[in-house]
Specification:
five-stranded mixed β-sheet, binds zinc ion, Nucleotidyltransferase, domain 5
Length: 311
């Protein structure tokens, strides 16, 4: 038997057939064209799924369920609200069932990625885990007793918007000092630009050729890896900011493991070792077992595999 996972994005819809080992056996995609009426977007989703089934030579009878990961707040099969798609109260699951007669489930895309890590990735074998995605913002998903925790209203794992500085920077959510203003790739780039502006001797300046637009997370991290003083100061502060959020999560949830994914994870052990060191120094209950910090493992497959695991 198979499950189908759909990764609904603002630009593309990706879908895959997933086998019982959690591996994608065939996948495809189609443009979302999100400005259209939602009925048309979901009709294309149905066509994509049916095309994949035909291509792989199986039918709806071989499929246990379909899961959809969608941006925004998702609850009881509805996309309650999504900025990316410009959707409000869209009956996503019922609409897709018009095209294929199997149970359909939906959840938020960050939650779905956490479910992928929990069932098939870095958090496999642990009952309680949090997956943190350090990208443009900070996304998160919380798994408690092997089940996603989405809150009572579908917006329960917005960990990027927990405040870590009361007098901090204004966030896109309207709050002040949110974790994602300090721990995301965007934050590292912002600090890199400031570092370059105050220290033209910095390797950040050299690597970016003095051009603000060429300051990336990789530039700042590469300069820090090489021991550049300004870059190291920025990196150390960045690591502290990540760890403040991680320790908040541990103090609230006490999970078995926290998996870190997203673009910043490309920094590899240089980042992970620094985060672990700072975390161990600052964790509350040092003498009893506490959450391991690891890298997420599912990468690009997380959206499809995690959606397929929804039930
Ligand atoms: Zn915020």
């Amino acid at each position: 038997m198979y499950r189908i996972g759909i990764d609904l994005g603002g630009t593309n819809i990706a879908a895959g057939i997933v086998n019982e080992e959690g591996k994608i056996v065939i996948q495809g995609s189609t443009p979302t064209l999100a400005t259209r009426p939602f009925e048309e977007v979901i009709a294309d989703m149905g066509k994509l799924v049916n095309d994949l089934l035909a291509k792989y030579g199986i039918t709806a009878d071989d499929v246990i369920s379909i899961g959809i990961g969608s941006p925004g707040a998702v609850l009881n099969g509805y996309v309650i609200f999504s900025n990316n798609l410009n959707w409000k109260h869209v009956p996503l699951c019922d609409e897709l069932r018009k095209y294929i007669d199997v149970p359909v489930y939906a959840d938020n895309d960050a939650n779905v990625a956490a479910l992928a890590e929990s069932t098939c990735g870095a958090c496999k074998g642990y009952k309680n885990s949090v997956t943190v995605t350090l990208g443009t913002g900070i996304g998160g998903g919380i798994v408690i007793n092997d089940k996603l925790y989405g809150g009572s209203h579908g917006v329960g794992a917005e960990i990027g918007h927990m405040a870590i500085k009361f007098d901090g920077i204004r966030c896109t959510c309207g709050g002040i000092g949110c974790w994602e203003r300090y721990g995301s790739a965007t934050a590292l780039i912002r600090e890199g630009k400031l570092g370059m502006a105050r220290d033209s001797q910095s390797m950040i300046y050299t690597l970016a050729q003095g051009d603000e637009n060429k300051v990336t997370a990789k530039v700042v991290i590469d300069a820090a890896k090489a021991g550049d003083k300004t870059a190291c100061e920025i990196f150390d502060e960045y690591v502290k900011n990540i760890v403040v959020g991680l320790i908040n999560l541990v103090n609230i949830f006490d999970p078995d493991v926290i998996a870190i994914g997203g673009g910043v994870a490309a920094a590899g052990d240089f980042l992970l070792d620094a985060v672990r060191e700072c975390y161990e120094e600052n964790i509350f209950y040092k003498d009893i077992p506490h959450a391991k910090i690891v890298f997420a493992e599912m990468g690009n497959d997380a959206g499809i595999v995690g959606a397929a695991m929804l039930s």
